[in-house]
Design goal:
With 126 residues, the protein is mainly alpha-helical. It contains four helices and no strands. The protein is globular and about 55 Å long.
Length: 126
């Protein structure tokens, strides 16, 4: 149904709110991923680990792995290797510590997600 008086209605406002929520959630997601990578870097005993470097690694690694993951069959492998290479480069460390930091960040993310899913699942059953 058209808006009264020939106006635009609520469509653009709802679209703007949706886009704003997307931007906020994207930034929160980057920050959370950076926290997990920072924790992984600390566990891997990377000397110069900082939250700023973790943010840079998450953004650069995410972009590069997204591009490479579009390659059929081998894309996800190339994307993972590229992400680890970004961690190695940004944190100025060796391959072993970069892989450890990457794995710990993934494990920490999965553990937190499972815990949150359990909490939400339990609250939905109440």
């Amino acid at each position: 149904m058209p808006a009264p008086m020939g106006g635009m209605g609520l469509g653009p406002l709802i679209g703007a709110i949706g886009f704003g929520m997307f931007v906020v959630m994207f930034i929160i997601g980057l920050a959370v991923a950076a926290v997990f990578l920072y924790i992984g870097a600390k566990f891997a005993s990377i000397e110069d680990a900082s939250f700023g470097k973790a943010i840079i690694a998450v953004v650069a690694g995410g972009i590069l792995s997204l591009i490479l993951s579009m390659i059929p069959v081998l894309g996800w492998i190339l994307g993972s290797i590229a992400y680890i290479w970004i961690i190695k480069t940004v944190f100025n460390t060796d391959w072993v510590k970069a892989v450890i930091a990457w794995l710990i960040s993934i494990i920490a993310g999965v553990v937190v997600m499972v815990i949150l899913m359990a909490i939400v699942g339990i609250s939905l059953l109440a």
